[in-house]
Amino acid sequence: MTATSESLAASVASISPAMLALAGGVLAALILLVIILFLRAAGLRREQAEEAELRARESAMRMAELLKIQAEMQGRITAMAEVFGARQSELNQAINQRLDGMSQRMSSTITEQTKSTHENLQRLQERLAVIDAAQNNIQTLAKDVVGLQAILSNKQTRGAFGQSRMETIVADGLPMGAYAFQQTLSNGSRPDCTIRMPNGAPPLVIDAKFPLEAWNAIRDAAGSPDAAKLAGQQFRRDMEIHIRDIAEKYLIQGETQDTAFLFVPSESIFAELHENFEPVVQKAHRARIVIVSPSLLMLSIQVIQSVLKDQRMRAQAHLIQGEVALLMDDLGRLDERVRKLQGHFAMAQKDIDMVVTSADKLTRRGAKIEALEFEAGGDIRPARDDETPAKSVESRTGLLKLRVVDEE
Question: Does residue 210 contact residue 265 with C-beta atoms inside 8 Å?
Fold first, then answer.
């Protein structure tokens, strides 16, 4: 052992310093290389660890994001389910309401139709009752027509019938005292009616007699030309005799009007008379006899009534003038008072306009006060030519100025 150590020491001693230095450098380079490799391996492992940690974090973040998205999706699905459920409930409720409304409308429509049907049936029954009553009235009227025919077949009752109708028309159109029935004239004749005329004029005579027998003979002979001709001649003679009697009995100079009325109690007879018996009508006009129907007599009575009213108005003309003068005075006073009232209204309207103007000014001023401007130091901006100079109030510190604009 000792020999070996000695031989080794001798070998080492025999190595030159240069070789030792070179070996030391190589060894140092190797150690440095190992250290560098170790550091690189440690850095690589650290980078790999950091990258793995980063990937793990990214994976965790992605997992958390996926869980969040999944939770959001579940929340949305739940919200959608709730919305769909609510919408379905609302839809079901709306459908039920519409079905209920349709059912109610259908029931009300059926009820109204049933009610309308019952009302129509009731009206139909009422109309049938009216028709039955009208049929009974027609039967009664037929009996009355038969009775009227029996009345008209008698000369005295026929005259009473025509006179009754004439008296009704006169009494309905004229006031009491303006007419008289069966008044005796100076020659002893008694006309059916006399109407007193205004201004002291003679009365107007109306006769209500008419030769109805000859007229009925014309109607009965309508199928036979010869019989119709004979009946027409007889009717013409009767009318001429009746016109002559009226002219002789009732047209008295100074006592009655120079014109008299011959009353015909039927419009159809009046039209037939003017159409087929024109010579009779012309002869009556020449004799100053006017043939009148019920409508013409009514029109004549209305004209006479207007004349009487005009005569009464003329008689009261001075009273009317006095009342008109008083009315004009009242109208003048009313005009004066209306003008005064108009002036009051104008003044009130002017005051209202001034109040509205003041209110507008106060509103604008309040808006400007609400938007006050506070400026730190410096001068207030100069007012424009068309603006009112601003009033500024300086604060205690002298730094802030309150700017108030006063505009009209």
Answer: yes
Q: Cα angle at 165 between 161 and 167, to 5 degrees? A: 115
Tell me which residue of 269, 5, 79 sits closest to 162, measured CA to CA. 269
305, 310, 313, 315: CA torsion to nearest 10: -100
Q: Is the pTM here over 0.85, yes or no?
A: no
Dihedral, 316, 320, 323, 327 alpha carbons, nearest 10? 170
379 and 403 in contact (C-beta within 8 Å)?
Answer: no
Residue 174 sits at φ, ψ, to 5 deg, of -120, 150
Place of tokens 């159409």: 275
Report the Cα 108 to chain-centroid distance in Å: 28
Q: Is 212 buried (19+), middle (13-18) or exposed (0-12) by CB count in 10 A?
A: buried
Distance CA(160)–CA(168), nearest Å, equals: 12
**In which element (H, E) is residue 237 found?**
helix 225-250
| DSSP H helical ranges for 316-395 | 317-370
DSSP 380: P
Please give the C-alpha separations between residue 153 and each of 148, 197, 230, 242, 268, in angstroms, as whole numbers: 8, 35, 20, 18, 18
192 and 178 Cβ atoms separated by less than 8 Å: no
Q: How far apart are CA 196 and CA 303, in angstroms?
A: 13
The pLDDT tens digits along the chain (408 residues) read 555 556 655 555 565 667 767 777 778 888 888 888 888 887 788 888 888 888 888 888 888 888 888 888 888 888 888 888 888 888 888 888 888 878 788 778 888 888 888 888 888 888 888 887 888 888 777 766 655 554 445 444 445 556 778 888 888 888 887 888 888 888 888 888 888 887 778 888 888 877 777 777 777 776 777 777 888 788 888 888 888 888 888 888 888 888 888 888 878 878 888 888 888 888 888 888 888 888 888 888 888 878 777 777 776 666 777 777 788 888 888 888 888 888 888 888 888 888 888 888 888 888 888 777 544 444 444 444 444 444 444 444 444 444 444 444
